[in-house]
Amino acid sequence: MTLEAFLESIEGRAYRMAYAACGHREDALDMVQDAMFKFVDKYAKRPSDEWRPLFYRILHNRITDSYRRRSVRERWNGFIGKPPSLDEGTEVDPFQTAPDMDAPTPEHSAKVGDAFQALQAAVQKLPERQRQVFLLRGWEELSVKETAFALKCSEGSVKTHFSRAVNTLREQLGDHWP
Questions:
Q1: CA 2, CA 7: separation in Å to the nearest integer?
Q2: How confident is the model at residue 178 (pLDDT cuts 50, 70, 90)?
């Protein structure tokens, strides 16, 4: 697999993971872009079977950095007041709002959309480590070993956090999945 093909194969999932972590489109795009640049700069010459966990370690670090910056920013804003929103006056991208001609029925889309929103909200409520493990194991299908490497923790810790996250999500989402 070429480096370009690898990056194309993970860009959508990496974006969804970053978006689930931060809840803001532009910040998620920035995190993924930064992770990709760092990955290419530092690890492009590594064997391709090492790329996934290495990339997700970098993305995990970007997400952690984002949490830290947000924490500092919130403390700072508590002292001086919140700055004006950067989203005011932004234009809508017509390509993002164009209808999908191959889309499923509106009823099915509504059910899946509601279920996905419930899932996204439930995932965001998980503790940070459980959320990270769940996204890497459940969405990205990394092995326990790869997840442990990406998050710099033990395999036992990955298993424990994944189990707790799945149990919590099952309790919260029992009635929501179509």
A1: 9
A2: very low
